[in-house]
Every structure is written in C-alpha cells, then in structure tokens.
Amino acid sequence: MKMTLKQFMPIPIMIAAIATVLVVAYNYIIPEIPSLAKIVGPGMPVTFQAWAMYFMAGCTILGGLKVLVGYAGGIAASIFILEVMNFSPANFKWMMALAVFVIVIPVIMAERVKLINHVPAWFVGSGMFFVLRNFPAPTGQAMDPRWAAHCDTAMLVLTACLIGQIFGIITVWCRMAYEGMLPKPAEEAVAVESGVAETPAVAPTPIAEPAAEECDCDCDCEVPAEASACSEANDGECCGDTSACETPAEDAEEKPAE
Hints:
Elements: H1 5-8, H2 10-29, H3 34-40, H4 44-56, H5 61-85, H6 92-109, H7 119-133, H8 146-181, H9 187-194, H10 224-233, H11 248-254
C-alpha cells in the first residue's frame, strides 16, 4: 500500500513503542519475578534477534514456527560441538573444528525439509547459545556445569525466542490494523500527493484514411463517356456491372474457335 510520509510516520513510532515495552519488561519487570528471571533474565538480545528473524521468515505464524524450530536445532548443534570438544580438552580447538565440519552438513541439509528449512535461524540460535552458555546467572553465580548448564541455557534461548515471535506477531497485527483504517484513494491521487506522479502513457491516435469517393454511375455500353469519367474518379476502377460493356467483337476474340 502506497502511503504518504504523514501516513507512514505512525508506523515507526508504533514499532518504537513496542520495542520500549520490551526493554522496560526485561529491565524492570522480569528481574522482580525470580522464577521468570531465572529463565529469561539475560535473554533480551535473543528476543530482539528473534523478533527480527520473524520478519525474515515471512511475517507469518508458520514462519515464526520455523524460527523457533531453527533455534532449537541450532542449540542442539551447539551442544553437539561442546560435547565433542570435551572428548579431548587438551586439543579442544581441533575437536571444535572437527565437530563444526560434521554438524554443518546436516544443518545445511535441513534446507530441503519444509518445516526446518529456515537455516539462518539455526545459525543465530547456535550463536546465541554459545554466547549465553557461560553467561552468569542473575544471582551472580556461574551456571551449573555440563548438562545442567546446557538445559538452562537452552530454556533461556528458546523462551526468549518465543517472546520475540510473539512480539513479531503483535507488530504485524498492529500495522495491518492501522493500514486498514487508512483511506484507500486512487493510485494516481496518492502519487500526486507524494510528489511522484507519473505521466500516464497516451496511446497514439490512429490517422483515419480518407473515405473512397463513391461512384454513382454504371459502366454500360450506352454511356461510355460517363463510364470513363467514373473510372478516372475511382483510380481506374469502374463500379457497377461491366458485363454489358463487352462488344460482340471482343466476345468473339475471347471465345475459342470451334
């Protein structure tokens, strides 16, 4: 839908207000609820990224589901990498390189499966898991090692991702509701108001050919002068019945000898 600048301005203001609500919730509301702070306390960066991923996935419920599944797949890939690295702590860098080579193959293959084919979500989810895996808990204590930490971090990332998808749905709904309230002027009127009117193409007017001059005379042998004048007026073509103009001599020349 084409909009003027005045019509469009409420949209970024609306999105800014939604983002402000998200920041206030993470900084002032969630810390006051210990059970919620334990799950999503440091998850604000994940939520903002997941919010953007909702639009990358097509702004639909199915797209949001693909993002959530992709984050879960990325988390599983990250856990695989960490566990492979633990097989040989002395050579963990080489083990990490090997694990990455192995796990990226099935991740890219996910592109061929409809529900899990949003591959960017796999990489973003994996990256956020790595970032938050050793992030201090809200209490200031380090997370429990190994699988306990895996589960805590996975829950944090997935919950924050879910919040991002919900905010994406809210954003799209608010924008559609606002655009539905706007008048729907003709496309040309919108272009003129925004200063980008285009000159419509004008089809060339066909040039009418002059009508042929009518002939009122008949070409008969009784009025040859009139027939001659008629022929000259019509570019050498004589109208009417010309069969009567054939002379007996001409008929004799045309007829084959018997």
